[in-house]
């Protein structure tokens, strides 16, 4: 993807998905659930791609995964991975610039396992040594902390449940042309009807700065198509196709952290693939 086409993608996403920056252009709503708060770096995280980087085009899944790893303290004690952008950079250093899912990125980080399908179009580890053989957190079984919902019609119920349970939550959204990943931090609702009316999220593809350092929280409208059984966002044809969540790391610090020799080399990015 060229620099020009990345800018076109930015325009497409902003025009289709984003009602406005949260707190700046907010549509009417009756209620809001924002469990982790409004403070960047505490309540929410936003790993971003960069305009000039040609190796972060397809890795939105890794950006979303990085947000949750930073939020959930799965980088605890790791000075070189102290931010979501540093984690995101590490993914790009060690994975191919292809589509993927947050699940595979989290599993690799925690337990050192890569379950990404070995077929064309799926991101794979191409530079060894990114994590120890059994991951950064071998004392924890990744699948004890991971949750997912694949049913399209249950997407918002899953988001609601995972956020109320205190999990870090991400989604895959899809059209006929492909997919994208977002990190979910809250939602709006009508407290009289109980209907979900909006999603609050961060997006690696907003491209609001040349170096990816600009952080933003977005609000998008929601609608449910009873015939299709899908939740559509922003009045567009993008629908929520899956929800993936990860619990925060347990409080005890790890016994050992094998971090020497793990440096930072590049930066990372957006296509998400669905199994």
Give an overview of the whole structure.
Strands 1, 2, 3, 4, 5, 6, 7, 8 and 9 form a nine-stranded antiparallel sheet that branches. A hairpin with a 6-residue loop joins strand 5 and strand 6. The longest helix is centred in the N-terminal third of the chain and has 15 residues, at 3-17. Mean pLDDT is 83; it is low at 1-20, 23-27 and 254-275. This protein has helices at 3-17, 60-71, 84-94, 102-111, 155-164; strands at residues 20-21, 31-33, 146-149, 168-175, 178-189, 196-202, 218-225, 230-233, 239-246. The protein has 275 residues and is α+β, with helices and mostly antiparallel strands. Helix 2 (60-71) crosses helix 3 (84-94). Helices cover 21% and strands 20% of the residues. The chain has a single domain (3-246), classed as Cathepsin B, Chain A, CATH 3.90.70. It is built from five helices and nine strands.
Radius of gyration: 18 Å
Summing up helix and strand content along with how strands pair, one would put the structural category as alpha+beta
Overall tally of domains: 1
Shape: globular
Q: Report the sheet-strand fraction.
A: 15-25%
Quickly count the helices.
Answer: 5
Distance between the termini: 23 Å
**From the 3D coordinates, which CATH architecture would you assign?**
Alpha-Beta Complex
Secondary structure topology:
Blueprint: H1 3-17, E1 20-21, E2 31-33, H2 60-71, H3 84-94, H4 102-111, E3 146-149, H5 155-164, E4 168-175, E5 178-189, E6 196-202, E7 218-225, E8 230-233, E9 239-246
Antiparallel strand pairs: 1-7, 2-5, 3-9, 4-5, 4-9, 5-6, 6-7, 7-8
